[in-house]
Design goal:
Helix content is about 45%, strand content about 15%. By secondary structure, the protein is α/β, with parallel strands linked by helices. The strands form 5 sheets. A 4-stranded parallel beta sheet has the order 3-2-1-14, with helices on both faces. Strands 5-4-9-10 form a 4-stranded antiparallel beta sheet. A 3-stranded antiparallel beta sheet has the order 7-6-8, with no helix packed on it. Strand 1, helix 1 and strand 2 form a beta-alpha-beta unit. Helix 12 packs antiparallel against helix 18. The structure holds zinc ion (ZN) (2 copies). The site of one zinc ion has 7 residues, from loops.
């Protein structure tokens, strides 16, 4: 029995389609990680769900004149289709709209209340006298007191990533009418974050294996001092309080959505027939919890969620929070409101999933922002995926299939070059695995691709297509060696390129799923029957880059 790995993935707001920034930032990395660990034989639980509450959804519902639940249901369905097409392999992708989630949130609330980490107080809440309503998070905008961005909202500043209380905003404005709000007293519950400051700081300082940006940002934030935060609000869409007398209030979305990691684990356990199985992934030293998010979400996962877990007790804190930086689009900051974005359903309606997975892996914004451009997408597809990896596989398999009766040939004695490359195929498994284990995804795929480059050099040197005329045995040996290297590539590239790895698995004549073979080099056996191979990837017309760029520019108001 291997390790147990809990993978929590950011909960997307169900108020719009997914875009490539979210995929590169938070959804592709955990899928790569999960596939690797499953193949390694570890037990993995990867969960997320659509965030059905929060003002992004109510704002959209008000704009469209429909119920918030209708918006949430529409995008939840679209998310499920997107995961399936892109191959994001959640064990459970649920939503915050379930009865189970409400129950778990209310349990956590009552536990923290009982332990004194939640208390009641009057809070000064922004109220718009013109609109006659309380303004929470995105219903109020203003200037960030930390970085002076004018686009801060009542819950956080996206530009510097700091969570905010509405009262901290400089020049606050109602998002509906633009008027300055009044602040009125209202009774609310507060999370006593201040009680956790020292414990959190000690905990984060020990995490020397965390990404530098995540750790430094968290330490800086904690050293600035933690304020208690209101966790309820005057609104009617969200999780109700489990106490009488607060019917007009709901639990604040930032408090409630992070509990989704726990409620989803419980839902997964219940649906599997063993309601207690979630404990395997949440308690004890045998399991590690990883949280994959974008950098705008760091504090919620390195400060607020750990504080809530510390308060509850007997639940594991995050082991790592490998947050990514941002993806820019054709050199400019991605903006959903100005439609400067590449939308995932749109991409998937015209292109295969693996070329996107490849590009976003090899230029993943791990340590700094990276850029997506259509010309880079086409270039990497044609020059690397097709020319380096796809052609290697295709020329080896078609030639072997044609000249050796559709079977893996019997090798003769291996020379040093052949032994070296087989050793390279073997050690790639260990090297790529180590990098994946440490969440260095970009380095991992580069390391895997260097094996493909080496294999191309080996084949050019051995040229079995020429040699076969005079020395059939030498050609057989080279092709046997090449199929072994390809078999290794099938494994090490599987977490990144699951669709093409599965095809390759079948062309090589292996049965079942590529994942079943485990994280090891499985050499094809001489005589093993191959399937008639097809190219793994298709070359894309270079003119598409301009076409796509123009489409992006035309549909954007940027
Ligand atoms: Zn700011
Ligand atoms: Zn107003």
């Amino acid at each position: 029995m291997g390790d147990r790995i809990f993978i929590g993935v950011a909960w997307p707001y169900a108020n719009g389609s997914l875009h490539l920034g979210q995929i590169a930032g938070a959804y592709l990395p955990p899928d790569i990680f999960a596939r690797y660990h499953r193949m390694k034989g570890n037990q993995v639980l990867m969960v997320s769900g659509s965030d059905q509450h929060g003002t992004p959804i109510t704002l959209r519902a008000e704009r469209e004149g429909v119920e918030p639940g209708a918006i949430a249901a529409r995008y939840h369905q679209e998310f499920l289709e997107s995961w399936q097409k892109l191959g994001i392999s959640f064990d459970l992708f649920t939503s915050t709209g379930t009865a189970n989630h409400t129950r778990v949130v209310q349990e956590v609330f009552l536990t923290l209340l009982e332990k004194g980490y939640i208390y009641k107080d009057t809070a000064s809440q922004p109220f718009c006298p013109h609109c006659q309503r309380f303004l929470t998070d995105r219903y109020i905008g203003g200037t960030c007191p930390y970085c002076r961005s004018e686009k801060a909202r009542g819950d956080q500043c996206d530009d510097c990533g700091k969570p905010l209380n509405a009262i901290e905003l400089v020049d606050p404005q109602c998002s509906f009418c633009g008027e300055a709000p009044q602040f009125r007293d209202s009774e609310h519950f507060f999370l006593k974050l201040s009680a956790f400051q020292d414990r959190l700081l000690d905990w984060v300082k020990e995490k020397n294996y965390w990404r530098q940006n995540v750790r430094n940002f968290t330490i800086g934030y904690l050293e600035g001092g933690l304020n208690d935060r209101a966790i309820t609000r005057d609104i009617d869409w969200g999780v109700p309080l489990p106490l009488p007398g607060f019917e007009g209030k709901r639990i604040y979305v930032w408090f409630e959505a992070v509990i989704g990691y726990l409620s989803a684990a419980k839902e997964w356990a219940g649906s599997g027939g063993d309601g207690e199985k979630w404990c395997d992934f949440w308690q004890g030293d045998e399991t590690r919890g990883y949280y994959f998010i974008g950098k705008d979400n760091i504090i919620f996962h390195t400060v607020i969620w750990p504080a809530m877990l510390m308060g509850c007790g007997n639940l594991n804190l995050p082991y790592d929070v490998p947050a990514n930086e941002f993806l820019t689009i054709e050199g400019k900051k991605l903006s959903t409101s100005r439609n400067w974005a590449v939308w995932l359903p749109d991409y998937l309606s015209r292109y295969d999933p693996d070329p996107l997975r490849y590009l976003l892996s090899i230029s993943m914004p791990e340590a700094s922002d990276t850029d997506f451009s259509w010309s880079e997408f086409i270039r990497r597809n044609n020059d690397e995926l097709v020319a380096t990896y796809g052609n290697l596989v295709h020329r080896v398999l078609t030639f072997t299939y044609r000249k050796f009766g559709g079977c893996v040939p019997e090798p003769g004695e291996l020379d040093d070059k052949s032994k070296d490359i087989i050793e390279g195929a073997e050690s790639a498994i260990g090297e790529v695995g180590k990098l994946l284990h440490e969440c260095h995804f970009k380095e991992a795929i580069k390391s895997a691709m260097s094996l493909a480059q080496e294999a191309n050099r080996y084949l050019d040197m051995k040229s079995p297509w020429k040699v076969i005329k005079d020395d059939r045995q030498a050609a057989a040996t080279a092709l046997y060696v090449a199929t072994t290297v390809i078999s290794s590539l099938r494994t090490v590239l599987y977490p990144f390129l699951p669709f093409s790895s599965q095809k390759l698995h079948e062309y090589l004549g292996f049965a079942g799923g590529v994942e079943d073979d485990g994280w090891r080099l499985r050499s094809p056996v001489p005589g093993q029957k191959l399937l008639p191979p097809e190219p793994l990837f298709s070359k894309l017309d270079e003119g598409l880059a301009e076409e796509e760029s123009n489409r992006l520019r035309q549909s954007s108001s940027q």
